[in-house]
Structures are given as C-alpha cells and as structure tokens.
Amino acid sequence: MEYGPAPESQKEAQAWLEQRGRKFGLFIDNAWTEAGETFASTNPADGKELAQLTQATADDVDRAVQAARRAQPAWAALGGHGRAKIMYAIARLMQKHARLLAVLETLDNGKTIRETRDADLPLVARHFYHHAGWAQLLDEEFPGHRAVGVVGQIVPWNFPLLMLAWKIAPALAAGNTIVFKPAEFTPLTALLFAEICVQAGVPAGVVNIVTGDGRTGEAIVKHEGIDKLAFTGSTEVGRLIREATAGSGKKLSLELGGKSPYIVFEDADIDAAVEGLVDSIWFNQGQVCCAGSRLLVQESVEERFLKKLKARMDNLRLGSPLDKSTDIGALVDPIQRQRIHALVEAAREEGCEIYQPAACDIPAEGSWFAPTLITGASTSAAVAQAEIFGPVLVAMSFRTPAEAVQLANNTVYGLAACVWSENISLALDVAPQIKAGVVWINTANQFDAACGFGGYKESGYGREGGREGMVEYLVPVSEDARPALPAVAKLAAPKPAAASNDPFAIDRTAKLYIGGKQARPDGAYSRAIHGADGTFLGEIGEGNRKDIRNAVEAAHKASGWTKATAHNRAQVLYYIAENLAARGQEFADRIAAQTSSKNAEKEVQASIERLFYWAAWADKYDGAAHQPPMHGITVALNEAVGVIGIVCPNENPLLGFISLVAPAIAVGNRVVVVPSEAHPLTATDLYQVFDTSDLPGGVVNIVTGSADELARTLASHSDIDAIWRHDGSAAGCAEVEKLSAGSLKRTWTGGAKGRDWFSTQQAAGRTVLAHATQVKNIWIPYGV
Ligand code: NAI
C-alpha cells in the first residue's frame, strides 16, 4: 500500500518568524536586545534559512547573569505556591501553542512532526505540570534546602524544547533564576518559549535566553555569577566544562553521550523487540543520547531477528519531516551527515557488512542518512565504541546471559540499556548487572518527568526528572554555615625522638592497609609523625602511585561487598563500632597526643555514634517506585557508585575518617582512603579494629602519606568511580576536580571550607548518601 503525502502546514510557524523579521536579539530581563552579530538557523530538510540569531558575547552573558542575580531573591521569596501558579500557566500555554511549537521545532531541527507533536510536546507540558507540583510541595518535601541561585543551562540540538523543559522546569520550581543557551542549530523554539514566559507572568530576569555557539557556552561556564551549571551534550564538551569549573565551587550536572546496548534474549517477544528497536535507534534519526545503538542478540535467534529487522527497515519512510507519515526525517546539519558517513565508510573498509534499504530515496536537498545496520564489527571497532549519533545500528551476538552483560558493559558510557525477555527472572537478574542509569525492560526510550534520567561512567552524573532531579537545583542550608578552615594546621617544632618516653616508639612504623592486610609501602619510605607538642609519636609508610594502584585493585576485587545484603553491611558497621568502643580510651589518648585536642574522648564517642548512624541507614536508603503515565512502573534504585577515593580531613582524625568512610561502605562502595596527613596514626590504629570486625579485605584500603600526591593519583586513576576530598585544601580540591574530568569521576569536595564533623546537619544525612550512590531507573511492564 502506498501512502499519499499528508503534510502539516507550516504557515503559522513561517508567519511567526515573518512577524519577528526573521531576526532575533537576546531575551534578557523580559526584553529583547537589538540583534548583534548574527548567524543563520536553517531548515535541515531543504537547507533554507529560517532566521538570523544573535551570537551572544561575554558581555551579553554578563548582562543576562546580572539580570538573573537581581531577580533571584524575589523569585525564591515568591514561595512554592507563587512559583507553582506561574509554572502551571507555562504548562497551559505550552499546550495551547503546542502545534506552533511542534512545527517550528520540526522546521528548525529536521525531526518528524509525528515525534515533535506526539512525543516532545506532550512531555514538555508534562514536565512543567509535574514541576509546578514540586514548587508547591518544596518546603514540605525538601526541608532545610534552598535554591542554588543562578543557574547556567546549556543544551544540545537533538531535543531542543524537551531539553529546555528538563532544565528550566526543575530550576524554576526550586527557586533559581536562569541563563539558558539553546544549541546554535536549533534556537527557535527557545525564543518562542521566551514569549510564553512573558505571557505566563514569569517576572523579569527569572528566565534569560542567550543564543550562540560554543563561545557563548564558554562564557556562561566561566561566569563567576553562576552558581550551578547543567549541561547536556557531547562527552568531549562535558569534560571541558568539568575542567573549566574545577575549584569554582559551582554545582555541576552533566548528561553526556551514550552507546546503549539493546539486549534481545532468545525467549523475547521477537516482533515486539524489533518494533522496540525501531523506536530505540531510528527515533529522531538516532540522534538520541540513549539510542539503542548496539544490538546484542542471542545467537540462537540472531538470524530470525535480523531478517525481521531488515524487513522492517525496508518499510521505514524517509522524507519530509512535516509529512505526518514520515518515519525518518532530516539530520540536524550536513556536518553530522559527514561524521556519520565517515564512521560507516570506515566500518565498510574494515570488512563490516552494511545494510541499507534498497528503496530508500534520499531527497536531493537537505541533510539525510538512510537507516543503516552494521554487522560483522569487532567489539573494539570505532562503530561499536563511538557515539555515532545517527540512524546507524551495530549488531552483535552473544551466547549466554553472562556474555550479554559483559558485552553490554564493554563501553566507556553508561547511560541506558534495554533488556528483552519474556522471562522476568532473567530480565531482573540482568538489569542490576548493567552499568547504566536507565534500564528499560521490554520497552525502549520511555521518559517521564517523575522518573530520573542520567548516566553512569562517562555518560555523566546528576539526574534529571523527579525528586532526584530536584536535588540538583537545591543545596542544604547547612552548607552555608560551614566555617572557613585555617590555611594550614600549624604543628609545633618536632622534638627529637629521644624525648619520647616510649622506648619502642622509634620502631613503630605503621604500614599501609591493602586488601585486608598490612602492606609495606612500595617505595620503602616512611615519615615521622609528631604530636602537637612536637613529641615524636611514630612513623607511617609513605604511600606512592604503586600503592594506590594496589589498593584500587584490592578494592575492585572486593566486589562481594556491593552484592552483600544491606543487613550484612550494617552488622559489620555495628561490629566496628563495638570494637572501637572497647578500645575507646586508647583511641582518645592517641588523638589527644596527636592533636592536643581537649575533645578527644568526645570525638571517639561521636565516631561510635556515627558508625551506628550509618549502620542504621545501610538498609533504609531505599529507592522509589514511580508510577509514570505509561503502563509500567519505574523502580529507582540507589546503587553504590563503585570504588571511591577518599581524602580525609586533617582535623578530627577519627571522626573525619569515620564520617566519610562509613556512609560510603554502608551503601556498598569500596574505598581507598588517605587519612589525615597531619594525624594519620588514628587511622593506622584502626587496622586491628577492622580485622576483628568481619570487614572483608579490600573494602577499606588505607594509604598514608602526602595528601596532595595521593589525591592526584586517585583523581587520575581510570578505575576509580568517585573522589571525595575534604582536607581543606582549596587548591587540592580544584586539582582533583580538574583531573576527575579524564574519566568523568564524580567528585565531592570541601574546598577551603570545613565541616563541623560533630554536627549531624553538616556531616550526616541524605546528602552524604546521595554522594555515595547513583540512581538506576528500571522501567518494568506492570499491569499491561
Ligand atoms: P556539543 O556538545 O558541542 O554541543 C552541545 C551544546 O554545548 C551546544 O549548545 C553548544 O553550543 C555547547 N557548547 C559547545 N562547546 C562548548 C563549550 N566549550 N563550552 C560550553 N558549551 C559549549 O555537541 P555537538 O557538537 O553539537 O555534537 C557533536 C557530537 O556530540 C554529536 O555527534 C554526538 O555524538 C554528541 N552529542 C551528544 C548529545 C547527547 O545528548 N548525549 C547531544 C549533542 C551531541
């Protein structure tokens, strides 16, 4: 059967552009600036220019930030209900103008009207409704939190309006004001949104929209008046942003690239899985960060599956995006076409088989790419590893579930995955083993405002959507009360060793603690540790790069800890507390000798209580079961981050150590810890406590020595998933953040600000656990 053309009218969208002279300034303080230096936005389906946009300069960005700063206190003070009413008005207006927005989006981006009309716009409105709700409930649901302040938001071109909604809705709900930059290829719907903000009664300065390319993005990233950055885009730019913001104290969330596996087991509903795959890789021409771009199909059904898939590909209609029966629209820009073409041709030269539907007519004008299936690629081939970001699927097969998991995780990314099987036990066994922030079971590319979205590994960190997403736009008020630490803790001049009244002190060299065993430092160096009065107290091993490597390896081997039940982990923490209590006086004396603290006994007591506290949390940091409007539930699980490098505070050598290590291990992480550089002997005394407390070897590894040097090694290590640094070194924290960009580790740093480690507000609570976990959202069919 042949379809006749069913074009959507573009009359109103063109009239909207015409009325505005096809030339736009910037939207700052609820007013339009005169257009400055401009660039064109074109329709990728025919290459025709749609409008001229202003390339915002650093001065323009500064004006936008100033406007946002002025507006922020009043916007926050408006209260949850005040903001909710305005956000509700935005949602209503988005629905009212849905068709105009959908057509404008299709013209600017090249994506099909079916998708903008039926997927993007309904989700955009849903986002504003849902987050109007969070504004309303903010005080009740997030007590003790405030808005971050002014947020800079930078989005890509693949879902221009949807990404805008994902960014702007939670930021507004939390009471932040915004400087927003759409992608240079697709700025138009953001400008129409600016008009909607005015109609909805958004006060001046609350939402500011600046257009431009990466240079404008850089100006936002660097601006000192920005308190938080939220970025969606390529991993490459995400890395640059991490580096550029290192040490700035700006909060950061990154939603980056992906190479998501689409796993089909032999017992899957094959027709449904083929249909799901069409949605997964050919939705939006494959220009989707979570596209199911790697098909992993069980060998026994591979042939049947690929045959059906090819038949389905032959029926995909490529053509005018405004035609309501088009499946595949235009790519955003010829530059993307060239990138994709180069990757596919390289695969062909390497001997891969490339399948494209024979009858796929590529229009003469515009930027297009036929749906493509690549078979025969090796697991390390560029097409199997790189984010192609186009309508290109790479297929591979596997034999066993274990092999499927291994292949699925064989990527630097960890954004999403699909698992297809009619055997619910198998699907729910595989889902937790996949390192990805979203797992769809027997479905694909589902999104909802109530469900968190975001990645593991080099796919970034932070979540968008739901409660998890709201947290990204809030800070605990207790953070404001943190004191600035004195620059360097001054120790008295060392006294000669002979001054010690302990005759054995000279022989006492504490070793490192790796894999549950005491280990001599690789470099065979040690350093002397003196008390506050200069008395020689002992020696500690001077750890180096090799020791860190060994410790990380030991931590990886201790993966059984992550799989242990939370109940078991809690038992071990209680046991550590009990054994610490049994030697409480000894620890207090040692702390007093090192620090001259008058609070040493109090510190030991507080540490014991803190161990109880985190033991209590171990089996209570539950996730959530979301009920999105689709038929299904989304189970949001808090998973351990993995291996965390921890640099402890110098002060409170016991309580600081316990306050960081206990929450990390309570939720299943393994840690490599650099204890207080100035007073490390408390940590080395803990070895015996750990040994007698059933803590499996490798869960806590301790490397003593120079905090700066060891932190640097931890931050550059590619097998560490997160790094926490709280020793009060602002420069050290900045360095750690910069180095973390290499493998996009998550960071939690204290900068020059200290924490009152005795305060449960500053050193405990859910905020700490949020640093120790990452949320996996698993979409499960339910009640279908
Ligand atoms: P990109 O990451 O360069 O652009 C995304 C946004 O960042 C745009 O608004 C851009 O103007 C801005 N930007 C660029 N350089 C910046 C900088 N130094 N500082 C601050 N902002 C900056 O993505 P691009 O070049 O458009 O696409 C290239 C590739 O990136 C794609 O082929 C795809 O593989 C990947 N990509 C992934 C996305 C995702 O959602 N995961 C989205 C877009 C692109």
UniProtKB/TrEMBL annotation:
Keywords: Oxidoreductase. PROSITE patterns: ALDEHYDE_DEHYDR_GLU (PS00687). The active site is at E255. SUPFAM superfamilies: ALDH-like. Residues 32-474, 528-747 form the Aldehyde dehydrogenase domain. It comes from the Bacteria. PANTHER family: ALDEHYDE DEHYDROGENASE-RELATED (PTHR11699). Belongs to the aldehyde dehydrogenase family. This is Aldehyde dehydrogenase family protein. It comes from [Empedobacter] haloabium. The lineage of its organism: Bacteria, Pseudomonadati, Pseudomonadota, Betaproteobacteria, Burkholderiales.
